Amino acid sequence: MMTKLNLDAFEQDILDSVENDEWRSKGNIQERLVELQDFLKHEKKKSVSIRLSENDLYALKKKGLENGVPYQNIIQILVHQYTSNKIHLDVS
Length: 92
Known about the structure:
The chain is mostly helical. It contains 4 helices and no strands. The chain is 57% helix and 0% strand. 0% of the residues are buried.
């Protein structure tokens, strides 16, 4: 087990749990991906412009290629998960 100094107690507990092999995949990852992509296709969209660092954009594109998902969809998924309280960001 490796302790991460930048993790709070809750996050460290989750990391320890993952490292102890206590988590199992739900499977059907491809099915979930198709479901999310379908959702994004049918949602009314509004175009926005944002500035990203070149390194972050490169990393997004790389992850998109690795997962067969356009990087714009990854951004849409992240924003949707944040706005629907599925993920939490510390913006302070």
